[in-house]
Amino acid sequence: MTNITQLRCINCSRTYQPRPGFYTCPICGSTDGILDVEYDYDYINKYISKKSLAGNREPSMWRYRPFLPVAQEGPLPPLRVGWSPLYRSGRLGAELGLKELYIKDDGINPTGSLKDRPSAVAVARALAEGAGVVACSSTGNAASSLAGAAASVGLKAVIFVPGRAPQGKVAQLLIFGATVISVQGSYEDAFRLSAAAIEEHGWYNRNAAINPYLVEGKKTACLEVAEQLQWEVPDWVVLSVGDGCTMAGAWKAWVDLKKAGWIEKLPRMLGVQAEGCCPITRAFREGTRVRPMEENTLADSIAVGVPRNPEKALRAVRDSRGTMINVSDEEILAAMRVLGRTSGVFGEPAGVAGTAGLIKAVREGIIKPEERVVVLVTGNGLKDVANAIKAAGEPIRVAPSLEALHKALGDLKLPNYGWGYVPEPRLAERR
C-alpha cells in the first residue's frame, strides 16, 4: 500500500510498517500505544487533486480513496457512505448571531450515523486481509454501521453492546444478521469482553480506539466539508466527543490537507461532551491524564466513561488552539428542538451535543459572530425516538371534529394564516 509510509506511536514515536492484525505499539501497550497513520503526500497528489475532484462523480467517501488506508484497487462495501449534505443555516445562524454557520448532516448515511465511515474502511480492510469475521464493542452506532457494512459484503459480524443500548439500535443489528452480545454492564465491560474475544478468536478488530485505520475513515467527513466550502477553511469545527476518535479524525482531515498543500491554514476544534460523562473535558481543563467517570447521560453514543483514544482528541484540540465544553442533558434536548425547528435536521442526542455546545460557546463569547463555523450532526434522531419525544413533547390530541380542532388551535394562539380563506373555484366549476 504505497500511500502509507508508516504507523507511528503517539506516545513513544516508534514507527512500524503496516501488517494484518497489528493495531497498537507493542512497547507502550494497547492503552497508551495508539498508532497514527502517516502518508506519502507526493504519492497522494499523483492520484488526486482539487481539479480531479471537481470532475469526480463518485458521491461517496471513496472519492478520497488516495487519502485512505485502503489499496487503490480492490473490493469496497457497496453501500453509499458519505458525501453528506453541508447546509448553510441562515435561521439558526441568525438566532445565534452568526453570519456564517454550516451544518454537516451525517445522519443521512446508510445506518444513520457518521460511524458508517470508519466501518466502511474496516470492512474494506477486512476483505483485503481475508478475514471472515469482524467484531467490535459499541454503545450502538458503531455496531449498527459495522453490521450493515458487513451484511453488504457477506462478512459475519459479532457485536458487543452494553445492556443500556437503545432498542432501536439493537434492532438494526439483528435485522442485519449480526451476532449480538448484550453485556450486562457498562460500555467499558463490553469493550473489555470484545477485546478478549477478538484476541482469542482472531477476528478483525473494528474498535476504533484500537484500530488506527478507522480514524482515517472518520476524517472523510471533514475532507468533504473542505471541498464543499470550496477549500475555504472554517474558523471553527464543532462536534460531540465520546471515545475521542471522531475528534481525532476530524482534525486529521485538515492536517492531511495542509501537508498535501491543499489548504494554507487550520481550523480551531471545539469538542463537546455531556456533563454526565466528560472525562476528556476534565483532562483538558486540568492538564492531567484521563480518569474514568460514571456514564450518566441520555446521549448514549458519547457516554464513554473510560475513553480509549483520549490522547489523539486532546492533541487535536490543543494543537488547533481550540477548546472543550460540557453541556447538560437539558441543553442537549433543547438543541434537538432548535436544530429541527430552524434547519429541518433531526439529530439524536449525541448527534446534536455539538450543536448544544455551539449554542453555549456563542453565548459565552468563545465563538465570535463574524467567524465561519461548521457543526457536525453525527447521528439521526430516529435512532433514539424516546428522547426525541422527550425533547419535542407530545402531539395535540383532538376529537375528530372541526370544532375540537378550532378550539385546540385557538388555545395555541397560532397566527390566523389561512383560516377563513375561500379558494378560487376550480376551472371545471367556473364553467
What is the element layout, followed by pairings?
Layout: E1 4-9, E2 15-16, H1 29-32, E3 35-39, H2 41-47, H3 50-54, E4 86-88, H4 90-96, E5 100-105, H5 116-129, E6 133-137, H6 141-153, E7 156-162, H7 167-175, E8 179-183, H8 187-201, E9 204-205, H9 212-218, H10 220-228, E10 236-240, H11 245-259, E11 268-274, H12 279-286, H13 310-319, E12 323-327, H14 329-343, H15 349-363, E13 372-377, H16 385-392, H17 402-412, H18 427-430
Parallel strand pairs: 5-13, 6-7, 6-9, 7-8, 10-11, 10-13, 11-12
Antiparallel strand pairs: 1-2, 1-3, 4-5
Helix pairs in contact: 5-6, 5-9, 6-7, 9-11, 10-11, 11-13, 14-15, 14-16
GO molecular function: L-serine ammonia-lyase activity; threonine deaminase activity; threonine synthase activity
EC number: 4.2.3.1
Protein name: Threonine synthase
